[in-house]
Amino acid sequence: SAVISQKPSRDICQRGTSLTIQCQVDSQVTMMFWYRQQPGQSLTLIATANQGSEATYESGFVIDKFPISRPNLTFSTLTVSNMSPEDSSIYLCSVVEALNTGELFFGEGSRLTVL
Amino acid sequence: AQSVAQPEDQVNVAEGNPLTVKCTYSVSGNPYLFWYVQYPNRGLQFLLKYITGDNLVKGSYGFEAEFNKSQTSFHLKKPSALVSDSALYFCAVREWGFQKLVFGTGTRLLVSP
User: Which residues, given as ranges, of chain B have pLDDT below 50?
Assistant: First the structure.
């Protein structure tokens, strides 16, 4: 399976600032996704990162708050903009290697705490 | 819309005993079903999947899951639990033709020595 590296692994941020999370995969993958896991909660899909075009956002998530880039088939970034304490979560990058089976593989996650 | 239910927030079992973590799903078409495990401060690890074929699927770390179409269930099982199995377990479903994976709320498994 693909090896997925996320940076930073954790960070403490001030309210009102923005932070960019990087996701690097060791092989070209078809699809990349960004999930959020709030404390004690399940995973919620933020968006699908599309290579060379704008990301596809799920209901409740908007590009101004969570801009996403995917310049190639192995790399993506998620920015959490104008952060508030409610944005304190684990943000997880995930990839699909095989479209016909569709299991996701996850990075270790980026744990953000907003003060 | 596809959905997953994990009715138990926590399952407690003694080491050496069999364990079951329950999952039911709802999709319009044929389901693709998955189990993931999350250890503290870690990302999710893929355990096993059901796509088609045998209703009993085997996965990592001795886990298996049984697909039951009539009951729309996909329960995770292990014949003999280990303390190291203590973690958070997520069931997920994807509908054929769609890429979005929908996760359940998770079940915390606690295996006591």
Answer: none
